[in-house]
Amino acid sequence: MKKIATCLNLYVKTKAESGRDDYLTQLYRFKSEERRVKMKARVIIWAAFLGSLTFLVIGASAIAQSPIPPIPHPITSTPNCLGCHQNGPSDVPQISQNHSGRTNESCTLCHQTTKLDTPPTPVPEPTFTLPSAAPSIKFVPLDKYGCLSCHNNPDLNKTKTNGEAISLYVDASQVAQSAHRYNDCTTCHTTRPHEIPTQLTKLSLAEKCGSCHQYEGELHLQSVHGRQLTAGNPDVATCVDCHSPSGSPHDVRRVLGYDSPAYRKNIADTCSKCHGDEELMARYGILERIYESYMRSYHGRAMKLATEELKQLNKATCINCHGVHDIMSTKDPSSPVGTVANLAQTCESCHPGAGENYARGFLGHKEASLKDSPQVFFSERFFFWFTASVVAFGMFLVSMDVIRWGNGRHHRKED
After folding, report:
1. pLDDT value at position 32?
2. What pLDDT, on the 0 to 100 scale, is given for residue 121?
3. Whether 187 and 207 share a structural domain
4. Same domain for 297 and 219
5. Which residues contact 78 (CB under 8 A, 6 or more apart)?
6. Residue 240 lies in domain
7. In total, how many domains does the chain have?
C-alpha cells in the first residue's frame, strides 16, 4: 500500500509540474487541504481545552484563597437560616442579593457550622469565645453551673412526703435544641434552686414565662385559657402545651422552626391535642369535631397540601380566627368570632368585602342540621342523593351495554 501511495504521489506531482491538472491532481490537492483543516481544528480544540482548564484552576485557587465566613453561632441539626437572615430583625445581617433564591439547606454547604447535636460539657468560665474567625462574639454557655452533671441522669428522682416520686431528669439533647439553649438554668430556676419550696404548677410555670415574655403573659392571663388557669383548672392550655413538642419547658422551640408546635403549618395539630380529644371536650359541652371539620374545609386541605415555606402558609388556621395568646370564648362578645359583626370583620381580613351576609352563612365547626341551618342541610342531602342517583344510573347503563355486548358475542360464536 505504501508503494502504491508513493507512486501515486509521484505521478500526481509529475502531472502537476507539466501543467496537466487532471482528476488525480485535484484529488491530491483536496486531500492536502483536508489534512490542513483537520490539523487546524485539532489545534483550536486543544487550545480551548487548555485555556478552560487554566481558567478553572485559577478560579478555584482564588476561591480557596478568599475566606468564606463561618456561621458565628451554634445551630441545630435542622437550621432555619432564612427565618432570621431574610426579612428578619433589623439587627441581624441579611443575605446578599447574589444569594437570593437559595434554601436553608444550601447555607451549610459553604459556611462552616458549630452544631449542637450533642450538648456542650460544663465549663468553669461564665462565657467562652467562638473560633478565631469571629473573636468578638460571645454567648453564655448552656450549663454555666454544671446543673446537667446531675440532672442529665434519667434515674434522678425526688420523693415527696406522701411517697410519690417526682423525676428531676432534664434531657440535655432537648435543651440543646430549644429556643432558650443560650439561657443558663439559673435564668428560670435562680442561683439557689434547691432552696425554693414553691411547687411547680401550670400557673407558676406560666407566670415564670411571663416574667420575660410580659406582653404575651398578660394576654394569656386575660384569655379563656388564662382565666381558667388562675381559677385552678388544670385542663387548659398553657405556654408549654403550645410551644413545646414534648410538653416540657426545657424543650420550647422557636416559632419559626419547622418542628415547632406553634409553626403555622403545625398549629391545627397543636390545637387538636385538646380540641380533638372528645372526652375532654365533652366535659365542657363542646360536641363539635373541631379538628375534623377544619381539615375537611378548604382552609384545612390547602394548609395540608402546602409546603413548609411561609409564603405558602397564608391560609387561615386557628389563630387567624380565634387569636393567639388572647383567645376568647366563642360566646364572648369581644371574641373575633363572638358576634356576626366580629366574624364578618375577621373574614374580611382575608376576604375583602365579605360582609355580614357572608358571615351568617358560615357554619364554623358545626355540621349542617335541621336546627342550625335547614337550608344547607336539605341542599346538602339533595345533592348527595342526586349525585348518587346519577352515578348509579350511569353504572346501570354501562352494565346493560356490557351484557348486550357479551350476549351478541356469544351468539356470533354459535352462528
Report:
1. 72
2. 46
3. no
4. yes
5. 257, 258, 259
6. 200-327
7. 4
Instruction: Identify the pLDDT of residue 389.
Output: 93
What's the CA gap between 140 and 185, in Å, rounded? Answer: 11
Residue 135 confidence (pLDDT): 42
C-alpha cell of 59? 478560579
The pLDDT value given to residue 413? 65
239 inside domain: yes
Q: Both 215 and 287 in a single domain?
A: yes
Give 10-residue mean pLDDT values along the chain (415 residues). 53 53 60 74 81 70 60 59 62 69 72 54 40 40 75 84 83 86 85 76 90 92 92 91 92 91 93 91 85 89 88 90 92 91 91 87 76 76 90 92 80 64
317 in the same domain as 276: yes
284 found inside a domain: yes
**Rounded CA gap, 277 and 291, in Å?**
9
- Boundary-marking domain end, from 191, 216, 241: 191
One domain for residues 12 and 123: no
Q: Which of 300, 327, 354 is the last residue of a domain?
A: 327
Instruction: Report if residue 147 sits inside a domain.
Output: yes
Residue 34 lies in a domain: yes
Domain match, 185 and 205 both: no
Distance CA 54, CA 395 (A): 72
Are residue 161 and residue 265 in the same domain, yes or no?
no
User: 0.85 cut: is pTM over it?
Assistant: no
Q: Look at residue 51 in the predicted model and tell me its pLDDT.
A: 78
Distances (CA, A) of 370 to 158, 374, 381: 57, 4, 11
